[in-house]
Amino acid sequence: xxxxxxxxxxxxxxxxxxxxxxxxxxxxxxQATAPGTASAPTAGARPxxxxxxxxxxxxxxxxxxxxxxPSSGSLPPVISSIxxxxxxxxxxxxxxxEQDPGFVRQVRDQxxxxxxxxxxxxxxxxxxxxxxxxxxxxxxxxxWGYVRLLRDAGVPxxxxxxxxxxxxxxGYDAQKAELCGSSRLIGKEVGVRPTLFRPPxxxxxxxxxxxxxxxxxxxLLLWTATVQPGGKIAYQVPDKRLRPxxxxxxxxxxxxxxxxxxxxxxxxxxxxxxxxxxxxxxxALRRAK
Length: 289
Ligand SMILES: [Zn+2]
Prior knowledge:
By secondary structure, the chain is of the alpha/beta class. The protein has helices at about 5-30, 50-55, 100-110, 120-125, 145-150, 170-190, 205-215, 255-270, 275-285, and strands spanning about 80, 90-95, 115-120, 155-160, 195, 220, 225-230, 230-235, 245-250, 275. The strands form 2 sheets. Strands 2, 3, 4, 7, 8, 9 and 10 form a 7-stranded mixed β-sheet that branches.
């Protein structure tokens, strides 16, 4: 179940909303704000409602809408789409190399539901960015401060390992070190422990599921389509169209804000809504009666 976010976590999020308000006020006043910092609100700035006051971003499931994802014994299930017939899709963004503050504003101001799967070496700009995402203006600019801005914008921050290995090449202990290390670090830096895990390259084995369970992660989340530069959707399925419950994968790369605008309007033009992944997973992972 994805009910692991404790009351303490919710409190942390409520507090985070206040930071978001301060940042928004700073932005509307036209002040330059470095990534990872939030200026005090300007005198006379209108208070903005926190994300909590506006309710969860994205479509939430109707009663009886979502099918149940079968359990995989005692191990966390591997999920690549949400079982629903409603025209709803889910946006997920991986790694964390390019840290454009404009993208956070876009997500917050337009209340776009996304889930971020962050990887330590990308967030901290250790080593070279992935070739497709290099040469960005904002690589490593805000580091964990950038991830906290995303959290303040209402984005769940989930686990994508420390160093992005192909987990199938590692034994159980090494996999567990990657998964638990990442969850611990995110808990320390962001204030909320992840409940979801996305395996790098989508590769995993039973040891990955065992390690995920040992680290308190409740599901492995794959995807049904990736989004390329320019907002073009590359489908994993032969019929090349969006389907209800699809999970789309993007990366923190240059021009993400532009690609995102194109993608979101394309999804809406095709009659799809953007869904709240946490709410749908909670419904899909409910226990059998
Ligand atoms: Zn990745």
